[in-house]
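Page 37, top half.
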Amino acid sequence: MATDVSTYDIVPTALAVKAMRDNGYKNAAYAVAELMDNSIQAGASLVELLCGDEEVLADQRSRRRISQVAVLDNGSGMDAPTLQRALQFGNGYWAETEQQEGMGRFGMGLPSASISQCRKVEVWSWQGNPDEALYSHIDLEKIERGEMREVPTPEPAPLPDLWREASASGFAESGTLVVWSSIDRCLWRTSKALIDNSEELIGRMYRYWIDRGEVRIRLASFMVDDPSTMQSEIEARPNDPLYLMENTSCPEPFHDKPMFRPFPSPEHFQETWTVRFRGEEHKVMVRLSIATEEARGEDPNDGRDAGSRPHGSHARRNAGVSVVRAGRELELDLGWINTYDSRERWWGVEVSFEPGLDDLFGVSNNKQFARNFAEAAKIDAEALAKEHDGSITQARIALEEEGDPIGPLLDVIWYVERNIATMRQHLKKQAEGRGRKRHKGKSAEERATEAVRKRQLEGHKGKSDAEEAKDSEERKKELTEQLEHDGYDKQQAAELAAETIDRDLKYRIETSPLEAGAFFSVHSKGGVLLVTLNSEHPAYELLLGAQGPAELPDDVEQLKSKLKAAQEGLEMMLFAWARYEDEQVVAEKRRQAQNLRHDWGRMAESFLEVRDGA
């Protein structure tokens, strides 16, 4: 009896293409970026995103709906074999290892990005004469019907007049036109919405190319039946999440000047590592920036805080660690930020690397993620170093021996973690400094100064009092240096020092992580007693978690909870002192502790007697 033997493809073409439509592009803007990668890689100086709408009947009403999307460039164009390969999944020019020096990866870009948004993609490309353009396409309907199993051989075909009219410069001597039609998966229904949601992303992805003047990117929308009349038209400006560039998309007053400054200084804001991977050496660079005092200041006209102003909202959308591959941003990695803390928008970190490190960083085929680096945000590099005798180098070597993909990057991860923590501390001090300037009535420092002056008149002397005899400029210099050491930038430290000395204050209270277990430290600079609270001490959050009224919760129940926690924190501090006395088994040491408590109590009594108006 004969057996009917049928042959089956391992992966049926129609099913494979259907699966490829769900390839993880976040939205149409990211898919468009894949096409722009190809344009820039081909040497284009002008890339245009052209979006055409048409009127359709929806819910018995005429509405505009996106009909066709095109990316047009003036790059080098493609010959017939290159064009055919460009439309074949996984077999583009950049799939070849020796060609992966730029933005391309795996040759997946054009077809996979296109079918993630539409059912038909057409490509015209020409070299030397637009009238001799070659044409090919992919049509999902034909694939599903089994009518298209191969990429059609490119043939000469006229370029559509529609796109010539919509373009700012027509068709250059060479270039490529990619057109999407039968758009069925774009989240945005109109061309304007697509452009509005693409502008910031595209400006951020290609910020370096735009800033250097190597490429212009135009975004335009129009009605298909009137392509010469633009509904909206913009040219993408650099969108720099480090805010160190000039002339960017950041709103006024920072549209033409940097909003951040290099951190910690212009000389040391970037570090480069040589990373060895698969027998070759590659470069990884980290750049750091932090908001200026001006950027975080209130609006002088209406008193709005920086976060609610246009430039603050812009910074919020750019919060995260910018991961840059071959000069093009892959993503803003949010795993490194505390999403609940509005101050996270005021620092910037950029990590850039070469394509040879794609597998180490875990770059996805669609160039939207660096998975391994994203996982690194969960690592406590400092704790890992402590497990290896405090050496980050030994920790890295151990991970590399274990085959952990994070191993070669541990030095970079540790550097990023450490500097983010330091910048957070700077921003906290910056906010505290502004809060003190807004303080109404006498501050604790002023009242404490009055108490000291009274004690001085009574004949009590302190070690710091002699320093008050120094020249005021010398005192300001000493205090400025200490405040810089504690985390303020140079300008702010100088301003705070001048304010303290000019107002004849005896005290400043600061916060900083202290290595010892003490709740606070005391030292004198320029005759001023600096009391530094240990922000790492558990008592800090309980007693002093809100350094100004703006940080207190508005909700009454939350405020009550905060006050209760502060009361319990104070009680725990007193219980801890009581236990400290109790554990002094030597009678003399116990008496010294008791006498210290009595002396401190009397001193506190004299200070607390000072009131506003006294």
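Page 37, bottom half:
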Amino acid sequence: MTRQSLLYGAAVLLLASLFNRILGFVYQILMIRLILPEGIGLFNMVYPIYVLVLVMATAGIPVAISKLVAEEMAVNNLHGAYRIFNICFAILIASSILFSCLCFLGSPFLLEYVFPNPKVYYIFLSLLPGVIIVSLCSAFRGFFQGLQQMTPTAVTQSLEQLVRVVSGLFFAYLFLPQGVEYAAVGASLGVVIGEIAGFISIAAIYFRHRPQIPAGLSAYPVEPFGRSVGRIFNLAVPVTLTRLVSTSFLSVDAILIPQRLQIHGLGLTEATSIYGQFVGIAQSLLFTPGIIAVSLATALIPAVSDALALNNVKLVRVRCEEAIRITLLAGLPSAVIFLLLAEDLCGLIFGYPEAGASLKILALGGPFLYLQQTTTGILQGLGEASRPFRNLIFASVFKIIGIYYLTGLSQLGIRGTAVALVAGYVVMAWLNLADIRQLTGFKLNIYNSLLKPLIAAAGMGLIIYLSQYYLYIHTLSPSLSTAVALIIGLISYILLLVFSGGIDGNDLRRLKSILVFKTRY
């Protein structure tokens, strides 16, 4: 099996993520129009709690698989890689069954003391079968990522998303006559059915295309079982704590935001609807450019681990610089677009332009959000997963305090929530960057990595503003003028980068090598 480069692996995941995001957008648009923001709000009140259960069930094991398999493969120990995978797979079977049962038995307690709206009860129950499925699926994906083979993850995630969209819309439409909450149950069933499809496909790839141990290959001394488990949990525990804190705070957000919206007079249904617009529209648009950061973070863990195992600090720095520059190249123009076209995009795509007020504020934190995702992947690849955990606690406490105070202000409401989230993104990104600099001596090239993309993004913003104004006064419809201005702006951004040297010949040669690289299983 051929190892893929960092850029190729990130590009494969990026293409799959782009495909998934397009499908997700279509799904989100149709779902919001089908079950309205109230139904989206109900689903998103319970989904973070479901993710929290997944985090506890997987216990950071998939990241441990990715990193430890990469370390074993760096010294050509395929026996050791399979042994790590088998131990982790057994742990995941036990933990996922345990947490699924605990959640089922504890669901009445959650209904009474946790869920902010009683209509979400059956939505939560319908998601529970996904805990075991996702846990086992994540083991296979972690194994291939450890081999620096991102294609299996990309292909199966795309299939999973496709099945989720089709089945989710079908069941939501089928259950809609019973009420909005039952339509949201249909969306939950779509999630589980998609996860089943992803699990079957990744398992099939593993059993058909996994690397075979060559006959006569000398095996390394077998590591004691206790030491192997220790290595797994030394990495898995801080990763689990990081994700546990992250998803716990997301769950707090899902509970706290609707409650604080009701402080200044909103009813439960109206607060649920506004919350649905915030998470289903404004945050969905904000997270779209993050597919690049998430793809990089996934590919960075084994790539940085591999360089570190070979004691190649220079290569670690190069990969850090490469990843952060790509993140800024995507994040800065995205922020400008959301600032200029927030209401237009929310109205054109989803039919709710009022969600643009929150998106404009969130746009200021967009580049920091994407940097937070990329730098977390770097730190995990360096074996320092405890650092983003510490940083996340600090940033999340800061954010929660902001949500509690600002969302309850009648003059701010949901815009106060957006301000609090932006503050959390900024704090987390800066703390992560400071840790990377301390660990590796990495220094960001301000001129090439920040100033050139920033100047190009500013120029793009001016072109978008002028283009939209010119097209609108020449009788083009608002939606068409927005779409055309956006296309013109994106083209101008790329051209400005090329002319300013923000994208150079090396970048084009790397892109060409990615496009012509052939993957073998």
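Margin note: The two ends are 5 Å apart (CA to CA).
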